[in-house]
């Protein structure tokens, strides 16, 4: 890697008699990469966040709570703590009148026939409870941020690769020029 002096703001864009064509090309590559990084990152993040939030909003509209009943006694002992839950089989009636069964989290030790709220989709299949609007915003921001950072990394990685190739080419050309200079002066490189 070549020696690098103190950093000067916008040094690639200044007029300089020693500035090479490759310096100008590198400046445009860096500018283009940063522009793509910002645009692609923001666009991908915004698109992903919007998609997640719309999907979760659709779930809130389409999924409905249905009254179900335990078809078997829930394992464990009935306790005062309401935060503990165990899996047990629950039965409910779908929108078309057909009977369905599935497993849901219930209070331990609940008796057969205990009422349980089950969330179902339009076809009567059991689903999880939909996310609230606040939870949907948090999930959307998280997914959007992750997507934005991931997509933004691609132009940066491409820029680093191109700059590395340009640097190797510059160093090779510099080596050739030094060899020519030494040959003119009568010295051998080695």
From TrEMBL:
Keyword annotations from UniProtKB, A to Z: Membrane, Transmembrane, Transmembrane helix
Residue ranges crossing the lipid bilayer per the database entry: 140-162
InterPro entries given in the database record: MT1774/Rv1733c-like
Xref: PANTHER family: MEMBRANE PROTEIN RV1733C-RELATED (PTHR42305)
Protein name according to UniProt: Integral membrane protein
Originating organism: Streptomyces bobili
Organism ancestry: Bacteria, Bacillati, Actinomycetota, Actinomycetes, Kitasatosporales
């Amino acid at each position: 890697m070549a020696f690098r002096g103190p950093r000067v703001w916008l040094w690639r864009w200044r007029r300089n008699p020693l500035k090479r064509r490759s310096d100008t090309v590198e400046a445009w590559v860096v500018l283009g990469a940063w522009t793509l990084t910002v645009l692609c990152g923001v666009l991908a993040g915004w698109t992903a966040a919007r998609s997640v939030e719309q999907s979760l909003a659709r779930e809130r509209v389409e999924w409905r709570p249905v009254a179900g009943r335990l078809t078997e006694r829930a394992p464990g002992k009935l306790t005062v703590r309401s935060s503990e839950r165990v899996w047990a089989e629950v039965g409910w009636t779908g929108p078309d009148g057909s009977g369905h069964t599935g497993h849901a989290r219930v209070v331990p030790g609940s008796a057969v026939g205990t009422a349980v709220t089950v969330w179902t989709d339009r076809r009567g299949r059991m689903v999880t409870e939909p996310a609230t609007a606040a939870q949907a915003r948090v999930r959307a921001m998280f997914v959007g941020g992750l997507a934005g950072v991931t997509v933004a990394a691609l132009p940066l990685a491409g820029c680093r690769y191109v700059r590395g190739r340009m640097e190797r080419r510059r160093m090779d050309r510099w080596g050739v020029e030094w060899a020519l200079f030494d040959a003119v002066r009568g010295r051998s490189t080695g």
